[in-house]
Amino acid sequence: MRRGVFRILVALSAFVLAAAPVAHADPPYRPVGVVETVFSQHGPWPVTAQPGVGCCDSTGAPFDVWYPANLGAGGMRHPIITWGNGTNAVPSQYAHLLEHLASWGFVVVATANRNTGTGADITSAARHLIDAAADPSSVFHDRLNPAAVGAMGHSQGATGVLNALADSGGLIKTAVPVELPAQAFCKDPTRCADTRRIGGGSVLFVNGADDALISPSSQPPWQPQGLQSNRAYYDALPGSVTKAWGTLVRANHNDVQGQPDCARASAPCTTGVFGYLGYPTAWLVAQLWGDAYALGAFTPGSGEFYQPNPNWANQIGAAGR
């Protein structure tokens, strides 16, 4: 029932998109695939944002939350996405992306911790929401699905979401690391990402082609040992993990902070957040809502994500066993 309602909302979004007038000015990023185009648009839920809604993580930092304003409509229980900031960044720097995710029916929680590499506070943020869902006085009471938790993060936060996936005891089901740093940038052994430790769930890696120093696509010739590239991280994931990877052709390390363009993002940024909206949202909808329409885009080999696309390179994926 609930998945059926969700599919109706997806279809409605696609219809509205098809009926919308064509813009005359070329946007900085134009989705090519039908599924990406649908999920690049604002979703069917209006969004409420609440900074500092709960306290606190291990550093004393509060949590910020974005969630559907009509929370629980139709008896739905919403999946949770817990966000990991890049080094010295705060959730408000990713507000456009996090609001976008909430518009597709997710409840998004983000610790204000500026150093999220261990993954501990990424996990504790999700547990904070799960506890709230059990509290009759909370707006989230009986409106969340604690069995459908995903994690998404940028840079150090990308390391953090992989650590959270490995260490959360199965709480986190999927992770989307964005601009995952090579292990050479990890100075604290407790914060290094090692995809060989992940035993289940699913991962979508996304990096920008212009981010060749911090999050390279292939192993740099001057640093061939260790997990120093997105390809190496992808290859090191055990066969039990469903996985995919793609590289945005025109994107640098901080494009994901676009609001939506680069005007308020940290440097370096090429065009803004646009390319990070469609397929990452579709992945999370597929993995956490169980939606067949979104899932079809990631069918290994034949799905839309893997087809020739001027905006994407290195698309590859495999189903877990």
Low-confidence stretches: 11-25
Please tally the helical runs, counting DSSP H or I stretches of 4 or more residues. 8
The string of secondary-structure elements, in order, is HHEEEHEHEHEEHEHHE
Instruction: Let me know the average pLDDT.
Output: 91
Backbone shape = globular
Query: Beta-strand percentage?
Result: 15-25%
What is the alpha-carbon Rg in Å? Answer: 18 Å
What is the helix content?
25-40%
Largest sheet, described in full?
9 strands, mixed
| Straight-line distance between termini | 28 Å
Overall description:
Helix content is 26%, strand content 20%. By secondary structure, it is α/β, with parallel strands linked by helices. Strands 1-2-4-3-5-6-7-8-9 form a nine-stranded mixed β-sheet, with helices on both faces. A hairpin with an 8-residue loop joins strand 1 (47-54) and strand 2. Mean pLDDT is 91; it is low at 11-25.
What characteristics describe this protein?
alpha/beta, 321 residues, 8 helices
Topology:
Blueprint: H1 2-19, H2 34-40, E1 47-54, E2 63-68, E3 78-84, H3 95-103, E4 107-111, H4 120-133, E5 144-154, H5 156-167, E6 174-178, E7 202-208, H6 230-236, E8 242-248, H7 278-289, H8 292-296, E9 312-318
Parallel strand pairs: 3-4, 3-5, 5-6, 6-7, 7-8
Antiparallel strand pairs: 1-2, 2-4, 8-9
Q: Can you give me a brief rundown of this structure?
A:
The chain has about 325 residues and is an alpha/beta fold. It has helices at about 1-20, 35-40, 95-105, 120-135, 155-165, 230-235, 280-290, 290-295; strands spanning about 45-55, 65-70, 80-85, 105-110, 145-155, 175-180, 200-210, 240-250, 310-320.
